[in-house]
Inverse folding.
């Protein structure tokens, strides 16, 4: 597959991938489960971290870089603490507790931020880069990141968790930016 148009800057054999914006169809399709844990997957994960850091994000799902796979990376430290780097492959939320209502943004919706209701605490089950299953809990911001990124892998976008009125206002704003050629 020719990927030359999806890749941007190069840094230490890592590439910054192009983040696709809504309404790109890949964003609303469930990602395919990962079945091969190989060098290609490791390269994708490394490139996703590089892309996420370059965009100053805390999470990035493979569909956001036009790869329809159930892979996501999260780092709440923005690259400052390597111990906080998380790779979730084929993740699922297995337990939700409580509620939080906080502002969220998304790299596929630049400049758009809205308050979204999420579970305050979640437990997830996922595989690592080698295919080994693990479970992990997240609270507050980590819980929100888990839920946001797993939603991406399910084809669910954060705008569809907004009230109908707020979603309509956001979609109008996007259409206006598209007409102006800035989206």
């Amino acid at each position: 597959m020719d990927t030359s148009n999806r890749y941007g800057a190069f840094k230490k054999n890592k590439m910054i991938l192009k983040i696709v914006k809504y309404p790109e169809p890949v964003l609303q399709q469930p990602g395919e489960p990962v079945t091969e844990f190989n060098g290609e997957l490791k390269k994708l994960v490394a490139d996703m971290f590089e892309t996420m850091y370059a965009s100053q994000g805390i999470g990035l799902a493979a569909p956001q870089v036009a790869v329809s796979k159930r892979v996501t990376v999260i780092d709440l430290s923005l690259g400052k603490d390597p111990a906080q780097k998380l790779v979730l492959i084929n993740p699922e939320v297995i337990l939700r507790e409580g509620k939080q209502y906080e502002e969220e943004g998304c790299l596929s919706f630049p400049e758009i931020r809205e308050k979204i209701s999420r579970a305050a605490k979640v437990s997830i089950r996922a595989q690592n880069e080698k295919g080994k299953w693990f479970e992990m809990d997240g609270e507050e911001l980590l819980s929100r990141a888990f839920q946001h990124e797993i939603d991406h892998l399910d084809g669910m976008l954060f705008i569809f968790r907004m009230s109908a009125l707020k979603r309509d206002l956001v979609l109008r704003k996007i259409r206006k930016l598209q007409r102006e050629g800035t989206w």
Notes: Helices lie at 39-54, 140-153, 164-180. The chain has a mean pLDDT of 93. The radius of gyration is 16 Å. The first strand starts at residue 7 and ends at 11.
